[in-house]
């Protein structure tokens, strides 16, 4: 007999954990399915902004102190630098420090909270397909589960999304960035990295990063695939300019990053998409951790309300997304094209002038204290 749950959450990472914990704490039966066994490695810079640190506390009771205790928090810095290959365009401090984390440890810890809240978590279970109308979820090994609702939190390659006929996958792919990242011992990097550093001007519609991560440094690039860019070659040049031994290329990994591909209507029948599955990543800096947690929480809230009242969760989920998330993504998208064009017209220095002009508000915008929409004070409502 097929087992039935109030909700099946496909994907047990950030968006999935946020959705599952929200539902389980309201006493709903939740099944979380993830193809990986945790802790598993996840390609990510692990940088948390102010709004993310707040939301982790609200949702999971995790604070910088508890995250440090559990080996999640690897570095904290209120400084930043934006550079080209030849000069520093801007550097300074921001009103709240950036928190650099280990994603494998963070995701594992959140799943621990999901279990404690009472959800059923099954690791190593790959979803092969689903039917948003009947709520049936079919696993690769042939097992079938049924949920009154399905939440697709299964990342950029979402299998749940494939069952949404109205999603234009070609359009989504157009605004999905390629990324490459390596993690190397801090001692192997030619300088002491004591702040997140962004490198601009060498990749069209994208950038590079060097992030401190405790005794390691994360080096990565991302960019939209426009023209005939050869990303692996570009990454080799990047390492060369940074003075990093090319031997580290053997550990380079890539993963798609939604980069302006966010959906306006991530609902089909009884299924909702959250996190990378819905393209919810801020399209200037590629911040996805907060948006995965927040959309997961919203999807969970909308489904919990629907289960309570016997209504449809779609309108409530869309209302929450359109009220807080989509204005940010639209604002950030406009700003990125403005900055990329300004750099083309006036040179790389344009971004430095922009950041220096409004250093305080710019930092507050990145952290989420101000909105990407005209730098208005932002109230996230959580
Ligand atoms: C190189 C890189 C660097 C980044 N750096 C940052 C950063 O510094 N700060 C920031 O805020 N964001 C960053 N991001 C973005 C951030 O990592 C993502 O936006 C975030 O992980 C999205 O979370 P998610 O829960 O939606 O999806 P994911 O974290 O991708 O999780 C999806 C989960 O679904 C599971 N899954 C997938 N398919 C199936 C299936 N068929 N069946 C069952 N389970 C499945 C996977 O195993 C996985 O656990 C970065 C991204 C990349 C690629």
Please, could you describe this protein's structure?
With 382 residues, the protein is of the alpha/beta class. It has a single domain (3-170, 259-367), classed as FAD/NAD(P)-binding domain (3-Layer(bba) Sandwich). It is 35% helix and 26% strand. The chain is built from 10 helices and 17 strands. It has helices spanning 14-24, 50-60, 64-69, 103-116, 169-174, 231-242, 289-309, 313-346, 349-357, 359-367; strands at 3-10, 30-34, 47-48, 73-83, 88-101, 120-123, 127-131, 136-139, 144-152, 176-185, 197-199, 206-213, 216-224, 253-254, 257-258, 267-268, 271-273. The strands form 2 sheets. Strands 3, 4, 5, 10, 11, 12, 13, 14 and 15 form a 9-stranded mixed beta sheet that branches. The chain is globular and about 65 Å long. The two termini are 40 Å apart. The model has no long low-confidence stretch (mean pLDDT 95). The structure holds flavin-adenine dinucleotide. This is NAD(P)/FAD-dependent oxidoreductase. Residues 6-308 form the FAD-binding domain. GO terms for molecular function: oxidoreductase activity. It comes from Pseudodesulfovibrio methanolicus. Keywords: Oxidoreductase.
